[in-house]
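Need Outer membrane chaperone Skp's 3D structure for a figure. Predict it.
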Amino acid sequence: MALSGPGTVPALAQELVSPAPNAAAEFQLGLPQSGILTIQPDRLFSESAFGKRVEREIEAEGAVLTAENRRIEAELRAEELELTERRSDMAPDAFRALADAFDQKVQETRRRQDQKLREINQMGEDARREFITASLPVLQQIMRETGAGAILDHASVFLSADAADITSLAIGRIDAVLGDGATVEESER
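Structure prediction for Outer membrane chaperone Skp:
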């Protein structure tokens, strides 16, 4: 392409500064037009319908475990008091055997209850991974609409315009697509 001749430079300059007709149609009003967007992942999850449902489920499981722990603790305390009362009527070796068995029971109970707590915590971690995976198409669509090449964690960005943060926009769109996610989780079971 030759750059000489009348009107050539202005026409070339016009091509460089004017977006292609289809490119303008891809962008939507109200969306940030930025090469880099930011998102607050914790807020994205916790304020979404999906995250709120998961939080309610985890709280319910935690409440059940707490009630179970209190019941077990009361039972063990009663058993310990009974064992202590029987001590004066028992031979030292017999008492030691019962005390050791009781201690083993307490340790095993503690291990079981700790395992249940780890499982509840794992539920939360699994749900976050599932949420991010299910949210990716929505986030990718926002990237296409804004012309962004990346979405960064807001916490790792030193300085950005508030308009570059798409957390609220993403929550609304993800809620519209996933809802509370109960049907997504049920279909995977």
